[in-house]
Amino acid sequence: MRIKLIFAFLFVANFLAAQPYKNIKIHEGPSAGGPEEPSIFISPKDTNIVVAGANINNVYYSKDGGRTWVNDKLESRYGVWGDPVIIANEKGHFFFFHLSDPTGENWDSEEILDRIVVQRSKNGGESWNRGWDIGENHPKDQDKEWADVHPNSNNLICTWTEFDDYGSKDTADHSRILFSKSWSNGRWWSKPVTISDNLGDCLDDDNTTEGAVPAWGLNEEVYVAWSYDNKIWFDRSLDGGKNWLENDKVIAQQPGGWSQEIPGIMRCNGFPVTVVDRSEGPNRGTVYVTWTDQRNGEDDTDVWIISSADSGKTWSDPVRINDDNVAAHQFLTWLDVDNSTGYLYSIFYDRRNHQDNKTDVYMAVSKDGGKTWKNQKISESPFTPKKGVFFGDYNNISAQDGMVRPIWTRLENNKISVWTAIIYGEK
Predict the structure, then answer these.
(1) Is the per-residue pLDDT at 33 higher than 90?
(2) How confident is the model at residue 13 (pLDDT cuts 50, 70, 90)?
(3) Domains along the sequence of the chain with CATH
(4) In a designed cystine with 199, which of 54, 174, 366, 388 is the match (CB 3.0 to 4.6 A)?
(5) Is 98 helix (H, G, I), strand (E, B) or coil?
(6) What is the DSSP letter of 107?
(7) Residue 98 and residue 117: Cα distance in Å, rounded?
(8) Distance between CA 405 and CA 396 in Å, rounded?
(9) Signal sequence: where (predicted)?
C-alpha cells in the first residue's frame, strides 16, 4: 500500500510539473495585422501593477499581477508609430517609448519617424502625459529605440538607430547608433551622440547598425550592444554617457546576421539584448548580452549569451541557452534579470517539438550567472505562423522580486493576439 501511495504521489507531482503555466490573453486583434512587438514591465514599487504595450498604439495595464487587463490606445502630441518599450522606475512611474507619426498620415508623410517619443504615467498605466521628444532630426529617420532607468538616480537612457533615409539603397545613405540621457524624469534629453564607429546601410538588414539595447551598471556605467556585419558590437561609458570607448569592440560573431530566415516568419531579427545584474548576489555587476544566430546551420537558429565581470573588458565564451538536441529554430528572444536574486530569465519561440512550423514559447532560467540553463515550455499550445503575417521584431520578459511575466504574440484563426503567463520564481 505504501509503495502504491508513493507511486501515486510521484505520478501526480510529475504530472503537475509537466503542466504549462497559466496563459492569459491580453488582447486579440481584429485580424492578422497586429498587435505585435509586445513590451512588458512589472512595477518595482508594487508588483501587482504591470504595464504592457504593443504595436501600433496599444497600451495595457493590470492591477492584479497580470491576471486581468485593461486595454487602451495611446495618443501623443507627436503621434504614435509602434516599437513600444515599457520601463518603470523605483517610484512606480512608467515610461512608454515609441516612434513618431506627427501628422497621423503614416508613410504618406515625410515627417514620420522624425524623433523618438517618451510618455510618462504616474498611475500604473491608467493615463499618460502628452509626451516628450528625443532626437528630432528631420528628414533623417529615428527607429528601433530601447531604454533603461537607473535604479537609484532614476535617470533615463535611450539608444536607437538613426537612418539617413530608411530603406534607401543609395550607398551615400547610412545608419548609426545614437545615445541620449534624461536627468529630468523624461522631460528633457541630452543632445544625441553617435556611439557606433561604423556606418551601416539603410536597408534594415545585416549591414545596418541596429538593435541597440542600453543598460545601466551599478553606478554611472552605461553598456550598449548592437548588431552589424554579422557581429555583435559593444560600447561602454563609465561616466553616464559623457565619454565612450575610443573604438567599439566586437564581442561575438553572429552567423546569419541581423536578418535571419525562419520558415513561416515574415521577418526575424537576431536582436542583441544587454542587461546588468544589480542584485546583491554573487554576480553583482556582471554584464550579459544575448542574441540569436545560425552558427549551427540555417535550419538551427539558437539563443546565445555571453557575460563580462569586468565592465566589458573581457567576455566569456558563448553559452547556448536552448538545451534541445535536435536541429530546430529558437528565435525572437529577450532577457531580463531579477535584481532581487540575480536569476536570469530568457524567453524565445521554439520549434524543438515539431517537424513543421508549429511554434511553442519557452522560458529558460539560469541561477548561476548564465553558465547553465533550465528550459521550460510556457505556452499551453503551439501556433503556426504564416509567412505573410508580421510578427514584429521582439517579444519581451520582465522579472521583479520573484515574479516573472513574459509576453509574446501568437496567430490563431488568422488573428494576432498578445499573451502573458503567470510565473513565479524564487525570491
Answers:
(1) no
(2) very low
(3) 25-424 (2.120.10.10)
(4) 174
(5) strand
(6) G
(7) 5
(8) 9
(9) 1-17
